[in-house]
Amino acid sequence: MYNNQNNCNKQKHVHELTGSTGIFEECNDCHNHRFCTVTGEAIYIPGKNDHFHEVKFRTDFTDEHFHEFCGKTSGAIDVGGGKHVHFIKDCTEKEDNHKHEFQAATLIDSPIDFKCK
User: Fold this and answer.
1) 67-93, pLDDT tens digit by residue?
2) Could you give the maximum distance between any two Cα atoms of the chain, in Å?
3) What is the extent of the structural domain holding 64?
Protein backbone atom coordinates (compact mmCIF):
# COMPACT_ATOMS: atom_id res chain seq x y z
CA MET A 1 0.00 0.00 0.00
CA TYR A 2 2.83 2.44 0.79
CA ASN A 3 5.67 1.03 -1.32
CA ASN A 4 6.73 4.23 -3.08
CA GLN A 5 10.01 4.05 -1.13
CA ASN A 6 12.00 3.06 -4.23
CA ASN A 7 11.01 6.22 -6.12
CA CYS A 8 12.13 9.16 -3.96
CA ASN A 9 11.45 11.71 -6.71
CA LYS A 10 7.79 10.73 -7.11
CA GLN A 11 5.18 13.10 -5.70
CA LYS A 12 3.67 11.59 -2.54
CA HIS A 13 0.15 12.10 -1.25
CA VAL A 14 -1.06 14.73 1.23
CA HIS A 15 -4.16 15.09 3.43
CA GLU A 16 -6.48 17.95 4.32
CA LEU A 17 -6.70 18.77 8.03
CA THR A 18 -9.25 21.01 9.68
CA GLY A 19 -10.35 21.49 13.28
CA SER A 20 -10.83 23.67 16.33
CA THR A 21 -8.68 24.06 19.39
CA GLY A 22 -9.85 23.46 22.92
CA ILE A 23 -11.39 26.40 24.76
CA PHE A 24 -9.08 28.56 26.86
CA GLU A 25 -10.90 29.68 30.04
CA GLU A 26 -8.93 31.93 32.39
CA CYS A 27 -9.43 35.44 33.68
CA ASN A 28 -12.71 35.93 31.77
CA ASP A 29 -10.80 35.26 28.52
CA CYS A 30 -12.91 32.42 27.09
CA HIS A 31 -12.12 31.61 23.44
CA ASN A 32 -10.85 29.02 20.98
CA HIS A 33 -9.39 29.02 17.47
CA ARG A 34 -10.00 27.24 14.16
CA PHE A 35 -7.41 25.88 11.74
CA CYS A 36 -7.36 24.47 8.23
CA THR A 37 -4.31 23.23 6.31
CA VAL A 38 -2.87 20.57 4.01
CA THR A 39 -0.21 18.23 5.41
CA GLY A 40 3.23 17.82 3.94
CA GLU A 41 3.92 14.86 1.66
CA ALA A 42 4.09 11.33 3.09
CA ILE A 43 7.29 10.51 4.99
CA TYR A 44 7.90 6.77 4.95
CA ILE A 45 9.20 5.02 8.06
CA PRO A 46 12.21 2.81 7.18
CA GLY A 47 11.59 -0.88 7.77
CA LYS A 48 7.84 -0.42 8.29
CA ASN A 49 4.91 -0.42 5.91
CA ASP A 50 3.78 2.94 7.30
CA HIS A 51 4.25 6.70 7.02
CA PHE A 52 3.38 10.01 8.69
CA HIS A 53 3.01 13.64 7.60
CA GLU A 54 4.47 16.90 8.88
CA VAL A 55 1.86 19.48 9.83
CA LYS A 56 2.22 23.27 10.06
CA PHE A 57 -0.55 25.78 10.53
CA ARG A 58 -1.54 29.14 11.93
CA THR A 59 -4.94 29.40 13.61
CA ASP A 60 -7.52 32.04 12.84
CA PHE A 61 -7.17 35.47 14.47
CA THR A 62 -9.45 35.42 17.52
CA ASP A 63 -9.31 37.51 20.69
CA GLU A 64 -6.67 39.69 18.99
CA HIS A 65 -4.10 36.90 18.48
CA PHE A 66 -3.37 33.63 16.65
CA HIS A 67 -1.33 30.51 17.45
CA GLU A 68 1.08 28.46 15.36
CA PHE A 69 1.76 24.73 15.34
CA CYS A 70 4.53 22.59 13.86
CA GLY A 71 4.51 18.82 14.40
CA LYS A 72 3.55 15.51 12.82
CA THR A 73 0.66 13.08 12.49
CA SER A 74 0.35 9.50 13.67
CA GLY A 75 0.96 6.66 11.27
CA ALA A 76 -1.72 5.62 8.82
CA ILE A 77 -5.07 4.40 10.17
CA ASP A 78 -6.88 2.13 7.70
CA VAL A 79 -10.50 3.11 7.07
CA GLY A 80 -11.27 0.48 4.41
CA GLY A 81 -11.43 0.58 0.65
CA GLY A 82 -7.66 1.08 0.42
CA LYS A 83 -7.99 4.47 2.16
CA HIS A 84 -6.50 5.81 5.37
CA VAL A 85 -6.44 8.83 7.71
CA HIS A 86 -4.01 10.09 10.36
CA PHE A 87 -4.60 11.29 13.93
CA ILE A 88 -2.96 14.23 15.66
CA LYS A 89 -3.23 15.36 19.29
CA ASP A 90 -0.98 18.15 20.56
CA CYS A 91 -0.84 21.79 21.72
CA THR A 92 -0.34 25.02 19.82
CA GLU A 93 2.60 27.26 20.56
CA LYS A 94 2.18 29.78 23.38
CA GLU A 95 0.83 33.21 22.44
CA ASP A 96 -0.90 35.84 24.58
CA ASN A 97 0.37 33.92 27.66
CA HIS A 98 -1.46 30.67 26.85
CA LYS A 99 -1.66 27.74 24.45
CA HIS A 100 -4.48 25.48 23.25
CA GLU A 101 -4.82 21.71 23.10
CA PHE A 102 -6.32 20.20 19.96
CA GLN A 103 -7.04 16.83 18.40
CA ALA A 104 -8.11 16.02 14.87
CA ALA A 105 -8.09 13.39 12.15
CA THR A 106 -7.06 14.15 8.59
CA LEU A 107 -9.46 13.65 5.74
CA ILE A 108 -8.82 10.60 3.56
CA ASP A 109 -6.20 10.84 0.85
CA SER A 110 -7.53 11.22 -2.71
CA PRO A 111 -11.19 11.53 -1.63
CA ILE A 112 -12.59 11.36 -5.19
CA ASP A 113 -10.37 8.46 -6.29
CA PHE A 114 -12.92 5.62 -6.10
CA LYS A 115 -15.00 3.38 -8.31
CA CYS A 116 -18.78 3.14 -8.00
CA LYS A 117 -20.18 -0.38 -7.84
Assistant:
1) 999 999 999 999 998 899 999 999 999
2) 56
3) 16-105
